[in-house]
Each structure stands twice: as C-alpha cells, then as structure tokens.
C-alpha cells in the first residue's frame, strides 16, 4: 500500500512524500526532494512500531541543512574527490568543490539537492517508488548528461531494496549511495547505547587530514576499527577517539560483499539490521559533529544520535585503481543496489 501526500513546495513545484506499508505494518517513507529516505518504522521484540531512521518531518529543515545529509540520495559520486579533479582516458576534468579544495557527495548540486520525478509501482508482494530524472553537465558540473533512476522497494519480508541505475551519453563518474543514519532504539535520546556493529571487512582506508583516502588499505587487526565480530558501538567510538585522536568514526571499510556486508543490532529492542550490497565499500560515520540546533522527532540532534552506513565503491576510487572502477561508459547502463533486512534477534 502507498500513501502520497504533499510535503511542501519549492517555488511552484510540489514535493511529494510517499509512504509504503507492507503486510507486517512496516512503513517506509521517502520524498521527491533529493530522493531522500525519511522514515523507516519497524517493530521491536515487543511489537512496538517506531522509527529507526533519522530524518526531518518538514521540508524547510531539509532546505536549511545539508551538512548531515539525512537520508539523502548521494551522487553522482559518494564521498570525496580529491581537489575536485580527475582524469578519464586522456581528458582532465575539474568539477565544483564544496569542502575546501575537495568535492563532497556530488558537489553543491548533488542528487540530494534536486527535485525528482516519481512513479509508484505496486504488486502483490512489494511496492516501489521510482525517482527518475536527467542530470545535465551544466547542472552539476560533471561531464556528460546522466539519466538516473533511484528505486525504493519495500517487500513483505521487511526488506528495503534501494536500486540505482545510471546511463550517460559520454564518459562520466557514477558512485551513488544513500546517507541513511540508523538508531534502533525506540528513543533517539539514548544515542547509540545498546548497539553492536559487525562489518565484514579486513581492511579500512587510510585517510589524510582532510578525510580523503591516501590509497593505502590498512589491516583492521589490533585496531579499534576491527568489527569482524559484533562489537559494542559506543565503546568502539570511544576507543577510536583515543586511538586516532579524532571526534569519532568516519571511515571507509573495504568489505567482502559475498554475503551481508554489515549487521547492526540493538539488544534492548531486539531489532537487527543486516545490510547487503554489490559494492566493495562501506563508509561508517557516527554523526561526530553537529554544527547547528536541529530536532528529529522532537529530540535535539546530538553527536552519536545515529550511525550512517553508506554502501558504495570506495571513496576517491577514481584516483586509486585498487579501490574499484566508477567510470560510467557512454550508453552502458550501470546498476547498483543496497538492501536493508530487518529482523528480531
């Protein structure tokens, strides 16, 4: 079942909010501004239905704040592009920068800033919201015109499938993701206490001071970033702060994607989230810095309010061949997916 409602307007353009509900009562909402994922309501072990995804309940907050990228569709390229420069074949490109000298999450006019066309598709076992549009090189400063589809699908097994499809008229980059922050508590004010995290990764990317990968892959062994077994997330954050002298976890992991790439569990509510993807990277960010006063579900947003788990090809891979290939060839469609699977432990 799908409910469509007016979420607000940008000029004369309506922004629609779509809420999909499955046979178990699970609800997933998304909006046509930025193709953002805004809510995921799922039951806990006591059958209580509550939201586990950080998002605003009004359009104005999304328009005023981009720094947290709450639930945002990210593209053309997730993560940072060093110096906003790259080479494809013999051509050198310079794209707009928006974080010092670097380009972050597609630049100032990334996917999350755009208004998307939408279509609803319903069947017996699942429901999909399809966001689609053409992004010209003049709009975002990247080479080539890119046709994109971002598809959210909810099925009756309490799974959310996110599919990205891209096809362009010339060579360009395509490395999209979703910037979803999760908190599996029934109350966001508990921050990330009670959560454990497991990541199917033997390595993480070494980062320079500006958080751009150096190209080196470090072994997670004997570091606070060893999540190969379930680990208390709050304690891991504190260990990372001490070990690396930084404000929290903000690291890309090179994952084995032959099965689940990560599992997040809250032992108080019994909620379990397994993440599956055909990408080789998972960026984990524990919302380390909150620059302004924002509220989510009437709670003041604080650092460690949620954990972002962003499946993508490793960041800045255009500069590091060992990170993966994100070059989109002309007239050749590329398809990526992320799947969120909810269960009770």
TrEMBL record:
Record's keyword annotation contains Hydrolase: no
Pfam family, one: Aldose_epim
GO molecular function, a single term: aldose 1-epimerase activity
Record-linked InterPro entries: Aldose_1-epimerase (IPR015443), Aldose_1/G6P_1-epimerase (IPR008183), Gal_mutarotase_sf_dom (IPR011013), Galactose_mutarotase-like (IPR047215), GH-type_carb-bd (IPR014718)
GO cellular component, one term: cytoplasm
Keywords: Carbohydrate metabolism, Isomerase
Known catalytic reactions: alpha-D-glucose = beta-D-glucose
Superkingdom classification of source: Bacteria
Residues of the active site: 179 (proton donor), 310 (proton acceptor)
GO biological process: galactose catabolic process via UDP-galactose, Leloir pathway; glucose metabolic process
Pathway where this protein functions: Carbohydrate metabolism; hexose metabolism
Top-level EC class: isomerase
Gene3D superfamilies noted in UniProt: 2.70.98.10
CDD domains: galactose_mutarotase_like
Protein residues bound to beta-D-galactose: 179-181, 250
EC number, as in UniProt: 5.1.3.3
Family (UniProt): Belongs to the aldose epimerase family.
Protein name (record): Aldose 1-epimerase
Lineage summary: Bacteria, Bacillati, Bacillota, Clostridia, Eubacteriales
């Amino acid at each position: 079942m799908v409910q469509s409602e007016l979420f607000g307007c940008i000029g004369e353009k309506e922004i629609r909010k779509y809420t999909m509900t499955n046979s178990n009562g699970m609800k997933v909402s998304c909006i046509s501004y930025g193709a953002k994922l805004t809510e995921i309501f799922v039951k806990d072990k006591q059958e209580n239905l509550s939201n586990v995804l950080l998002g605003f309940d009004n359009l104005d907050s999304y328009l005023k704040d981009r720094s947290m990228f709450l639930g945002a569709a990210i593209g053309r390229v997730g993560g940072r592009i060093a110096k906003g420069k790259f080479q494809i074949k013999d051509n050198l490109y310079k794209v707009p920068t928006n974080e010092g000298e670097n380009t972050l999450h597609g630049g100032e006019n990334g996917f999350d800033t755009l208004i998307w066309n939408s279509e609803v598709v319903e069947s017996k076992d699942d429901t999909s919201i399809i966001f689609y549009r053409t992004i010209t090189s003049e709009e975002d400063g990247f080479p080539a015109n890119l046709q994109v589809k971002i598809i959210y699908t909810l099925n009756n097994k309490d799974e959310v499938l996110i599919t990205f499809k891209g096809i362009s008229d010339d060579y360009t980059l395509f490395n999209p993701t979703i910037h979803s922050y999760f908190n599996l508590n029934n109350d966001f004010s508990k921050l990330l206490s009670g959560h454990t995290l497991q990541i199917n990764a033997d390595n993480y990317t070494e980062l320079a001071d500006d958080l751009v990968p150096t190209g080196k892959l470090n072994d997670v062994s004997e570091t606070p970033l060893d999540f190969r077994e379930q680990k208390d997330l709050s304690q891991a954050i504190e260990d990372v702060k001490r070990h690396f002298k930084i404000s929290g976890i903000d690291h890309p992991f090179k994952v084995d994607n032959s099965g689940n790439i990560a599992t997040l569990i809250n032992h108080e509510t019994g909620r379990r989230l397994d993440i599956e993807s055909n990408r080789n990277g998972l960026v984990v960010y524990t919302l380390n810095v909150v620059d302004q006063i924002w509220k989510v579900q009437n709670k003041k947003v604080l650092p460690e309010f949620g954990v972002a788990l962003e499946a993508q090809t490793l960041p800045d891979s255009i500069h590091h061949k060992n990170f993966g290939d994100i070059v989109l060839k002309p007239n050749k469609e590329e398809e990526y997916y992320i799947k969120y699977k909810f269960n009770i432990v």
